[in-house]
Amino acid sequence: MDNIAGQKSSLSIVSNLSVLLLVILWLVPTVGLLVSSFRDRDQIGQSGWWASMFPVEQAYRINPEPEGVQQVDGLYVLEGNVFGEGSGSVAAFGIQAREPSAADVGQTYTRFVVDVTEPDGKVDDIKLELAYPAGDAPVFPDVDEDGNKIMAETAQIDRSLTVMGNGDFSYASAKDIKRAPSVYIMAETPPEFTLINYETILGSAGMDRAFINTLTVTIPATIIPILIAAFAAYALAWMDFAGRGFLVAVVVGLLVVPLQLALVPMLTFHNKVGIGQSFLGIWLAHTGFGLPLAIYLLRNYMVGLPRDIIESAKVDGATDFQVFTKIVLPLSFPALASFAIFQFLWTWNDLLVAKVFLPSNSESWVMTVKIADDLLGSRGGDWGILAAAAFVSIAVPLFVFFAMQKYLVRGLLAGSVK
Amino acid sequence: MMKPLLGTAAVAALVAGGAHAAGHLPFNEGEGAFNWDSLAAIADAYNLEGETITMTGPWTGVEKEKVDIVLNYFEEATGATVNYSGSDSFEQDIVISARSGSAPNIAVFPQPGLAADLAKQGFLTPMPEGTADWVKDNFAAGSSWVDLGTYADPDGNDQLYGMFYRVDLKSLVWYSPTAFDEAGYDIPETMEELKELTDQIVEDGGTPWCIGLGSGAATGWPATDWVEDLMLRTQEPAVYDQWVSNEMKFDDPKVVEAIEEFGYFAKNDAYVQGGAQAVATTDFRDSPNGLFAIPPECYMHRQASFIPAFFPEGTAMGDDADFFYFPAYEGKDLGKPVLGAGTLFGITNPSDATNALIEYFKTPIAHELWMAQGGFLTAHAGVNLDNYADESSKAQGEILQNASTFRFDASDLMPSEIGAGAFWTGMVDYVTGASAGDVATAIQERWDSIQ
Amino acid sequence: MSPVLQGILTILIGVGGCIAYFYGSNLILDKLIFPARNDDHGRNINRATMVRPWLFLFPALFALSLYLIYPVIGSFIRSLYNRSGDTFIGLGNYVQMFSEDGFRTAFLNNVLWALVVPAAATFFGLLVAQLTDRLRWGNIAKSLIFMPMAISFVGASLIWKFVYANDPDIGIINAVRDYFGMAPIDVLQIPFWNNFFLMVILVWIQTGFAMVILSAALRGIPEETVEAAIIDGANPFQIFFKIKVPQIKGTIVVVWTTITILVLKVFDIVYAMTGGNFATEILPSYMMDFMFRDDGRATAVAFVIMLIVLPVMIWNIRQARSEMR
Predict the structure, then answer these.
(1) Separation CA B293–CA A277 (nearest Å)
(2) Contact residues, chain B, for A277 at CB < 8 Å
(3) Where, by residue number, does the polypeptide cross the bilayer (chain C) (predicted)?
(4) B356, B46 Cβ separation under 8 angstroms
(5) Which of A149, A396, B105, B140 has a CA that sits 20 to 30 A from residue A44's CA?
């Protein structure tokens, strides 16, 4: 086998790389959700989650209080710092929301009212906005956008803003400054993460109740169908009786029944027999809906168990019950474990069945219903909350998977799947 | 389509604060401008110690807190226990529980169409006798509210099944006063001016409108409000009524005209934020955010009175955001039509205590208690308008009163397969390329198939 | 009683009841009804053997008939009646449906889903299972790929909005396009191909399932067959396709079938991502449009769904039959 050793190592690099690639592909969407769950709604809208680690340059509107306005050269002047008590670094600024980065720091941005001469000789006044180094005199262009001649000597300041890199600003206006003026700056926002989404989800009243309700639904709804299905699967795989083939066909056929069909008739039935909307009802429902797949998977697995072990046990006088509990059940452990995981995940994430078979009052809400109908109802656009909710509800299934995985792998190594 | 109306963040904070201060009864009896007498009358008339009334509806979150406070006063007065649970998929839940015989005592319907469906199947109990006369006498434009709550029972006889509690106002355009100021735009008084302003904004290098139709499985409903509003601005109210009842077919040129009028705004890449393609998928809850972006991503957003709940946190009403009436055509002489919607109570499981609760909702105090918490408009004529929590609600109340024509949301009145189905998807098809005529024809075909 | 205690108690009663049934009924059968002693010894064992399968099967059969067979029959009858359920119209609902554009789109999309998703998920699952088989960090890789299985469909739809969103500040696809100076594009609105973008979500979820089952199957292949092939000079690809794949064919069928069935039940993804707009409707979401409104039509759609998977079902039944011989 030495001759293929080189090939093998190159192959192993290839397979390492391709698995890495696949894992990254599979992980990227989830990471996006995870990162987003730590950001608030405004941040999610402002920059992609992949950029969340980096500071973003963002526009702000500052409305400094008009306190200490002085009159200088016929203008009303307000001075201060855009960051107030805090500090920061301004990248650019402007006087209109439309152009928050009209001027660079250290410049003065001024709106002039200036007369222009139109080609036909008519004189009109226009507004002209100019940015120029602070302290310098503005340099007027000769003509405006429409080609009219600008008469620079007539220019009057309407309002003027100077902002320094450290946030010091000076705002001047021809009119008295009574209302807070709007100053727009571009500043870097450091990356920011918050636990507020998780607080909202976990701190909401009744979440603990919902969590317990979910467990109350999920655990029996996982164990009962497996138990029932295991017996049935054994009967269908290893016991001889008339109609066996037909029953297998029926089970396979029932796999495809859309469970929506059964919701209303079954609920009516539950009401008739007095179960109503209750936990007992939802266990039975989950059992009924989960059975075909459980029987199908388990039977397929059990059929593949070595025939001689079972037959020799029977020859030794073991009853079917003993064969089942002592031999088949332990051997089928991997299949049981994998189905248990799937059934658990399915009932855990189920929303539809829970809504139909549990009472609609908040006492019996499971987590999915709580999240979908109560928490998200008024926050549908709030992606941060949605993301956190998704992670809260995935935490337990993931834990279960990682906890069970050890047994799963051990079981898989011991047994054999046909 | 009607969506929950929520108060502004400020009001929510107020309520939260109030709840801390005064427990579950934030307004002290005998204080303020409330009609406390009407509560006392209820307390005298009923002793419901030990009775439980269940109630489900579409109000969740902040709204649930508000309705709970209204109900707390009833519990305090009568000794009954009222369990209200709100669900975002109420429409689905109520059908399931009605069919399975486990319906609550009272259901809060966001759409008359759904209540009518259930009434026809025999799942609703008519309102207590005398309610129709009471509504006629005590609601502004009372008889129209009676008509909206009257449906055919399984035998085809008309009965009053629904009593309205809350009214929503749809014909509003939201904008940022700061942005309008800086750009020097004036509030348009007529549709002609609105269209001029739209062009003006484009000329100035801006984007006039934010329109988002996304709403999960209900995607498309905001467009139905647009079309209804424009229908009222291009046609007589009588034509609108014929459209609702399908006397006038959905593919009538008049309807197609209204749809195309919507397309004038929504299907023009220059007019809408993100271009026409984005309209269909932008979530309606995200779409007003463009108003507050720097630089502004858009300048106007047509949406009902509940939308401030989805504005970014800290948005100050009046400074950062305000609304104006979605104007009518000067050239069409159709007055000032207003589109609205409302939430109504229906009895899904009768009991004496339930009737008592219905009586409570007839009192002014039951309306005032929510008015004072904000985000609530009412047609009840007996309430003290001083109880409106903010100027914004008051101004909306004025629009409601000054309306020369008031019409109920058409899609809420149409059979749910149309008004909450084909109409929605049709509008999405329209903004993504289909012609108005084709869309209207498809919706009419669906309507034909259910008749 | 505290909810925790109540929960634990109910769990004990539910699960305990189940165990008690199987244990008790077998005990009664063996000890009381057909005791394997005295004269009837042999006959009693035979009788017990005849009864026991039904004892094993009873709970399953009972639940299946009640929760699935009864509604299916009831629904089938319902699908032959009109909207209000009072007039028998035979196949009217079916005929009407196939004459509608909306239904035909949903039908064709659904066929596409039923072909593409199981194929892709099984392929990726097999690929990962094989590649990670001898990998040092194989289990970590597998866990990460399995992770989407734990996410609800609605949660998954949300995750993928962060990939597909039109806004380059939210959707990663458009962020990349933006980086290269291309205009943003709404992938969910691209005719026909948008279906595939939705399918990707389900493939992403289901690959983990396929991987877990298939990797167990791969582990189960007897070492000798592989070693023999290596000695014969087969290259790794030949080993995989000629030796391994044929041996786990049965498992592949199971995985394929299971995913196909899932595909036909999932409506959440389409519902949450596009609401069935932009010609992405599939039958289960189309059915939801009619649920509680026109039950005749809704049930008819359900039977069309079952029709689509019929070939896979027949194949499975055949397979099961041949195993039994």
Answers:
(1) 48
(2) 97, 100, 102
(3) 6-29, 50-73, 111-132, 144-163, 196-218, 252-278, 298-317
(4) yes
(5) A396
* % of chain A at pLDDT higher than 90: 7
Report the distance separating Cα B93 and Cα B87, nearest Å: 8
- How far is Cα B79 from Cα B155, in angstroms, rounded to an integer? 37
Which whole-number Å values give the CA distances from A254 to A248, A299, C309, in the listed order?
10, 15, 11
CA–CA separation, B57 vs B343, rounded Å? 10
Mean predicted confidence (pLDDT) in A115-126? 84
Residue recorded with tokens 């649920």 = C291
> Which residues are CB-contacts of B448 (< 8 A; sequence separation ≥ 6)?
none
What's the CATH fold of domain C102-324? MetI-like fold (1.10.3720)
Cis before B295 (ω within 30): yes
Domain extents in chain C? 3-79, 102-324
Structural domain spans, chain B: 9-167+341-392, 172-338+409-449
Return the CATH superfamily for domain B9-167+341-392: Periplasmic binding protein-like II (3.40.190.10)
Taking the C-alpha atoms of residue B62 and residue B55, their distance in angstroms, rounded to an integer, is 17
Whole-angstrom Cα distance, residue C167 to residue C184?
7
To test the contact with chain C by mutation, choose from B88, B90, B267, B281 the residue with the greatest count of C C-beta atoms within 10 A, namely: B281
DSSP letter at C67? I
pLDDT 10s digits, A360-394? 777 788 888 887 777 765 555 677 887 888 788 77
Angle at C296 between CA C295 and CA C302, to 5 degrees: 85
- Whose tokens are 């109409």? That residue is B423
Model confidence, pTM? 0.86
List the single residue in C with minimal CA-CA distance to A269.
Answer: C66
- pLDDT of residue C277 exceeding 90, the answer is no
B294 and A60 within 8 Å at the Cβ level: the answer is yes
Tokens of C55: 């004892």
Report DSSP state, residue C312: H
Q: What is the pLDDT of residue B266?
A: 94
Of the residues C270, C286, C292, C297, the best mutation for testing chain B's interface (the one with the most B CB atoms within 10 Å of its CB) is C292
pLDDT reading at B8 higher than 50: no
Q: Which of C166, C278, C293 sits opposite B278 (nearest CB)?
A: C166
ipTM of the complex: 0.83
What residue ranges define each of the domains in chain A, with the CATH number in brackets?
56-189 (no CATH), 198-414 (1.10.3720.10)
CATH code at B172-338+409-449: 3.40.190.10
pLDDT at B75: 93
What are B158's two structure tokens?
């008309």
